Amino acid sequence: MHELQEWIQRQAAARGFAEVGFARADAVRTREAWLAWLEAGHHADMQWLEKVPEKRSDPRNLFEGARTVVVFGASYAGPAEAPHDPARGRIARYARGRDYHDVMFKSLKRLKAELLERWPEVRARAWVDTGPLLERYWAGEAGIGWVGKHGGLVSQRHGCWLLLGVMLLDVALLPDDPVADRCGSCTRCLDACPTDAFVQPYVLDARRCLSYWSIEARGPIPEEFRGPLGDRVFGCDDCYAVCPWNRDAPPGMKELEGRPENEHPRLLELLQLDVDGFRARFPKSPVKRAKRAGLVRNVAIAAGNARLHAAQPLLQQLRTDTEPGVAEAAAWAQARIRQQIPGEAPDG
Ligand code: B12
Ligand code: SF4
Ligand code: SF4
Fold first, then answer.
1. In this structure, which residue's CA is closest to atom 8 in ligand 3?
2. Lowest mean pLDDT, pick from 17-21, 76-80, 93-97, 156-160
3. What are phi and psi of 142, to 5 degrees?
4. Beta bridge mates, 269
5. What does residue 74 show for φ and ψ, rounded to 5 degrees?
6. Type and span of the H or E element at 162
7. Known catalytic membership, residue 321
8. pTM of the predicted protein model
9. How far apart are CA 287 and CA 274, in angstroms?
10. How far is the CA of 234 from the centre of ligand 1 (A)?
11. 100-118 and 3-14 are packed helices; what angle lies between their axes, rounded to 10 degrees?
12. What are the structural domain ranges in the chain?
């Protein structure tokens, strides 16, 4: 094996990455499936996914001379979920701690700098999430795991609590063997989805996905998805969480551990956040992606779903909020709280 390859493997482990794998930089074999996905509009309004298709479907067009795709997986496996509490919301597991983009990118940047010091003739470039690369596909090609029926990468050892980063190199290294799909007859992830967002196994329609609505979408969330949003205030873990391959996952990277205050945040606290308060409450956090408007919109809906009577005064104030989707969500939540559910005692 190439000395450089062994060095990368050692460095990845030393820096806390759970997985590292190598693939030949070639044209994406599932290009047609990906183009059909876009063609069908399954990417909702994430138009940036349509950009630079020639780069996304072949890393050699993204990085001239690319020969090897190195994929790094950082685990964020952690303790079991706290029991549901109607006065509190749920943030997706990956977003409870520091932003993985920063953590992983900083680590890959340092690794790259050392690599270039030792092998100055090599060219390298790294991305975490934001590059035009199909990261799950490359993780599959690099033998880190397989693409499961929920569309996520599943590692036999770490399950699907893995975040991915990619480095392209202009050196040909030994490719790892892809891993066989071990989903078998299991359909837990497809069955667990609260909004039936899977058109078929492996194919997600983001227009029906709560992760899309609660993180990416600006403005009002369609009525049909507000009830299913439940207590989620940022992202959705349901399809990943039920995967049986998570069961024996060892604890994740220290730097990606969730902050206690994000484990199960109080809805009343989050409803009060203004723009500055939001920035101070979620420093260096993936939650910033939704901006204050997206988060408070989601929290209002969660308060409505929980019939949280104590939220009524704050919701009343939010009815004059000028940020996208907030006033509309507050009005919806107030009406929802007023609805009596037979046999259910109001809380709050
Ligand atoms: C856009 C995006 C989203 C969108 C759309 C999701 C989607 N399914 O594409 C939304 C906002 C909904 C989303 C949600 C989530 N996301 Co996201 N997302 C991305 C992003 C930025 C681009 C994905 C993309 O290009 N999609 C287009 C589709 C069609 O491409 P693809 O998923 O790569 O699929 C190809 C391969 O799977 C391949 N393939 C391989 N084998 C097989 C087998 C068959 C049969 C088929 C048909 C295809 C196939 O073919 C497909 C087409 O070429 C990636 C980062 C990146 N640059 O890749 C993160 C990424 C996929 N997201 C991630 C995460 C963690 C999530 C969430 C869990 C977050 C949360 N808790 O809320 C959810 C999970 C939802 C889900 N079940 O997919 C991680 C996934 C890690 C992992 N273990 O797989 C990534 C890789 C970010 C990262 N750097 O770690 N996400
Ligand atoms: S993230 Fe949630 S809504 Fe989206 S596909 Fe998975 S279970 Fe369904
Ligand atoms: S839950 Fe089952 S079907 Fe879904 S990815 Fe995991 S093993 Fe595959």
1. 183
2. 76-80
3. -85, 10
4. none
5. -110, 125
6. strand 162-169
7. no
8. 0.96
9. 14
10. 17
11. 150
12. 3-169, 219-235+266-337
